[in-house]
Specification:
With 313 residues, the chain is mostly beta strands. The chain is built from 2 helices and 10 strands. Strands 1, 2, 3, 4, 5, 6, 7, 8, 9 and 10 form a 10-stranded mixed sheet that branches.
Length: 313
């Protein structure tokens, strides 16, 4: 730290010029006409309460100014810190730069604002038949938003939406092609703006999710339609009824068969067996084989079907 030299305190009888007097708040003077002044001193320490120390000015001589200094840090209370000053501007030739006006010191380190409260993660919307609590009342698909015969769930593995539709009496039972058409209509009918079709089952996780749901919801005796069929070509089992549907199984005319490209299946032992001849072209979850898959005539009326959200094809 530079200390002020008092007039007449050097050598007796030696005249003192102005350059011997140093402002205690200034930087060191320039060391010649070309060299700049050294960095200015740091600002004062933060006040113990709310007021910060004042900063100091830049060097007074030299080819370029002293380095910039900052205002003192704010005090420990929430009040603002003291005023600061920046260092001198760049000098020209031999004149030192003039100090800039001081900027505001940093605020004290007092209390900070509290964070915003965590939200519930639910933005209330009209309830829909989509397996979600849309209106944020901790209930799913209430207010009869689903058809009387259907319930909705989402897969825990991929979030896909499924609708399980079960007949309430024998008059509501449905054939496979009608079930497929019903799934196609449900997306727009329910305002979901999603393409639906009879369910494709492509993994053991998906299959177990569906079987557990069916066991909980369906009667102990019955059959539930899936999208599996060999309607276009006997023994070639595919998902869906569109052109180019994905094959997953090649059946043996005597019963059973082999997976196509190791794709998933859950046929019951010896199935599909074309028990009804070439008419056994559609697959169901069958309670008679503990809800594994079985083949049967697409024209038979069964208790229900599962629709699944599919990407557009």
């Amino acid at each position: 730290m530079v200390t002020a030299v008092l007039a007449g305190s050097l050598l007796p009888g030696c005249p003192l010029t102005d350059e011997y007097f140093v402002d205690p708040h200034a930087g060191l003077p320039g060391l010649g006409s070309g060299a700049g002044g050294t960095s200015t001193a740091s600002g004062g320490a933060g006040g113990s309460a709310a007021i910060a120390g004042a900063a100091v000015t830049g060097g007074t001589t030299g080819g370029s100014s002293g380095a910039t200094s900052r205002g003192g840090a704010g005090g420990a209370s929430p009040s603002s810190g003291g005023s600061g000053q920046n260092g001198g501007n760049s000098g020209t030739d031999s004149a030192g730069g003039a100090p800039d006006a001081g900027g505001s010191g940093e605020g004290g380190a007092g209390t900070s604002a509290g964070g915003t409260g965590g939200g519930t993660g639910c933005a209330s919307e009209p309830e829909r038949c989509d397996g979600i609590d849309n209106d944020c009342n901790d209930a799913i698909d209430e207010e009869s938003v689903c058809p009387d015969s259907c319930t909705a769930r989402r897969s825990p593995s991929d979030g896909h939406l499924y609708l399980l539709c079960l007949s309430t009496d024998s008059g509501d039972e449905i054939a496979a092609d009608d079930a497929s058409a019903r799934c196609t209509d449900l997306g727009s009918e329910l305002g979901l703006e999603l393409p639906f079709g009879l369910v494709w089952i492509e993994s053991s996780e998906e299959n177990e999710f569906l079987k557990d749901w069916i066991v909980d919801a369906a009667p102990s005796d019955g059959k539930i339609w899936t999208a599996a069929n060999d309607q276009n070509e006997e023994t070639i089992w595919v998902w869906g009824r569109r052109t180019g549907a994905e094959q997953f199984f090649t059946a043996d005319p005597g019963g059973g068969g082999i997976p196509y490209m190791d794709r998933f299946n859950d046929w019951a032992s010896g199935q599909p067996d074309a028990r009804d001849g070439t008419a056994a072209d559609c697959a169901v979850f069958d309670s008679n084989v503990e809800w594994q898959w079985n083949d049967q005539s697409c024209a038979r009326q069964e208790i229900g079907y599962v629709c699944e959200e599919h990407p557009p094809f």
